[in-house]
Specification:
By secondary structure, this protein is of the alpha+beta class. Helices cover 41% and strands 20% of the residues. It is built from twelve helices and ten strands. The strands form two sheets. Strands 1, 4, 5, 6, 7, 8, 9 and 10 form an eight-stranded mixed sheet that branches. Bound molecules: 3,4-dihydroxyphenylalanine.
Amino acid sequence: MDELRDKYIDAIANASDEAALEALRVQAVGKKGEVSLKMRELGKMTPEERQVAGPALNALKTEINAALAARKASLADAALEERLKTEWLDVTLPSRGRRIGTIHPVSQVTEEVTAIFADMGFSVAEGPQIDSDWYNFDALNIPGHHPARAEMDTFYMHRAEGDNRPPHVLRTHTSPVQIRHMEKHGAPCRIIAPGRVYRADYDQTHTPMFHQVEGLALDRDISMANLKWVLEAFFSAFFGTSVKTRFRASHFPFVEPGAEVDIQCSFEGGTVKVGEGDDWLEVLGSGMVHPSVLRAGGVDPDTYQGFAFGMGIDRIAMLKYGIPDLRAFFESDLRWLKHYGFSALEVPTLHGGL
Ligand code: DAH
């Protein structure tokens, strides 16, 4: 038994891997292992011999099993050590650079415009980009034969033969939101409606999709003077400098009287500077809402009156941020977006700066 112990305890302690260890286990304490065979011999012994040999053999078996378990654990530890040596990760390495997206100038300027008008009590209204020709034209006092209807380069929605739904268009301006707002909320009201509009036109200053912001203020005694004050307050806040406006009589079917509005600027050295000099730049259309338009929106023109205006968001973004070509706005060129885009943290607010 001492021989057996010497043979196995040493061998087990030196087993080089799990397979060698398993072979030793079978050889020693397996069904036909040396220790097991010895145990079978107990039957042939005298009771006196058995009393000595039995416990000794059991103790040997226990010792060998314990040695097997201990070696198994130390082999597993060693294997883990080995893995940890190769599968390590240096978490202190600097991470790979990730490109951070930017806020598009159109989104930024829309937020700026919204912040300024919100401060003057205007809320934001929305309407669909696909609208019926009634909302886009008729309700705005532009009847079927009116030249403005042709001038708008309108995209009409496809109608299959026999489809008798009223014609729908990609809205050519944000003015139809006036009608939808009046229908729903009546007067008095003070809203702006920023959003996408569509016209079939493409050159350096025109893209088939662009952005406008509509304004509408209705009450019992709103006049052209209120319009002028609101627009001057807006442009001064937007450009961060006092800006004079010039109203030129003009015609839009949905207002009477109507005016095109210019802002004061200088053109020196090929750059436009707003709020100085004695040149003028046209930036929007406006006027006193036509009685027919009020009626179409369900508002009584004998009780209420007010002003409306429509302005190109992309255009004022180009002016404020010195962006020369409108088409680049919608080309999604990452270099352009990185250059003209804004950090997501530059949220425009009146107190934080626009
Ligand atoms: N809807 C006009 C356009 O798209 C802009 C406009 C002009 C809107 C005069 C108005 C307005 O509300 O009173 O060209």
